[in-house]
Amino acid sequence: MIISEQMQGYAEKSSWIRKMFEEGARLKALYGQEQVYDFSLGNPDIPPPHRVIEAIEDYAAEISHGYMANAGYAETREQVASHGSVIYDVRLDAGDIVMSCGAGGGLNVVLKSILNPGDEVITLAPYFVEYGFYIQNHGGRLVSVPCNKEFLPDTRAIKEAITEKTRAIIINSPNNPTGRVYSRETIEGIRDALMDKPDILVISDEPYRRLVYDGVEVPSILKAIPNSLVVTSASKDISLAGERIGYIALGPGIADKDALCNALILSTRILGFVNAPALMQKVLAACMDCSIDIAIYRRRRNILMQVLDEAGLDYAPPEGAFYIFVHAPLGDDLAFSNALVHENILVVPGTGFGYKGYVRFAYCLDERYIQAAADGIKRIAQRLKD
Ligand code: PLP
């Protein structure tokens, strides 16, 4: 066998993702793109704002495209720090920013920098499935702590999960797969749970920070929790997922911040990222205040919630991101997602997010598909309940 046992195991564990993908391709080939309602992908379908496209064109002709310092362009780090100081409401300098290849690249850089073999990282289930792989990439162990019924962190359970090997906790708000946003009180609850554990790093994974609806606030983790950092990207809010650009921002309260920053820079190099994409660093810095039209996602969320309500399906109403985590009839997420396939509807079973009994609908698709899928969703919900 040419591949490692670990990779073989990973491939088997994530086979349902492949299955969904293959099902989608099969259905699209059979019935045509228009007849398949693909709620399985968190891949933004709204084009990036005009200003972003213009910046790409302008900078493409202007910059050298060569290697640079592993942390990124000094000027870009300064611009990100100055913008970050406003949105996170703490003072950030260029030295607190390391540019990354998206949030996924940033998370790997952080975990590489902090984990010793066997160290534990707490994640709150349901969680972004890649966390497990990222943690294992760097010799760590994922410790899954289920959220409460509203998909908000259970601070007592977090406290109970802490051992002397706990090195970090990953939090993600607005959340994938639930769309829930953690309030100020919730964040303070996490801070209090970690009060006597100053060595545990809070990693706030925030690629959806700007995607919130109805004026909901996303509190600043950097301000609320001393030993914290933010990992984020332009993948979702300006639809640049394929361009792999993001950054890590180190909170002012991190003990030994310089050592951590240097480790992040070295990790960026030795993981083979070398540096975040040159062109995209320039584009991101020039477009820090840009966003796609969030009202489009809000409208889709509302339409989908109405469809789910009419189908009699339960979910905790999402305040952000572009996901709804829906309770499967009879709590069988695999049966629900398989049944939906017969209506040409693709979703992701909660099993893949470390949380059985639910399925994730992503609304990165035009609202006409949501409307077109409505009858199929209702039929399946009815059939499985009977
Ligand atoms: N974190 C969460 C919660 C996500 O949902 C995603 C992508 O879907 C990522 C991180 C990685 O995003 P990217 O690497 O494109 O920034």
Q: Could you walk me through the main structural features you see in this protein, from its secondary elements to its overall organization?
A:
By secondary structure, this protein is α/β, with parallel strands linked by helices. The protein contains 14 helices and 12 strands. The chain has a 7-stranded mixed sheet with strand order 2-8-7-6-5-3-4, with helices on both faces. A 3-stranded antiparallel sheet has the order 9-12-11. Strand 3 (120-125), helix 6 (130-137) and strand 4 form a beta-alpha-beta unit. The model has no long low-confidence stretch (mean pLDDT 96). It binds pyridoxal-5'-phosphate.
- Beta-strand portion reads 5-15%
Named once each, the bound ligands are:
pyridoxal-5'-phosphate
Distance between the termini: 47 Å
The arrangement of helices and strands along the chain is HHEHHEHEHEHEHEHEEHHHEHEEEH
- Give the strand order, joined by hyphens, for the main sheet: 2-8-7-6-5-3-4
Work out the helix count: 14
Shape: globular
Mean pLDDT: 96
Helix content: 40-55%
Radius of gyration: 21 Å
Low-confidence stretches: none
The biggest beta sheet is recorded as:
7 strands, mixed
Structural class: alpha/beta
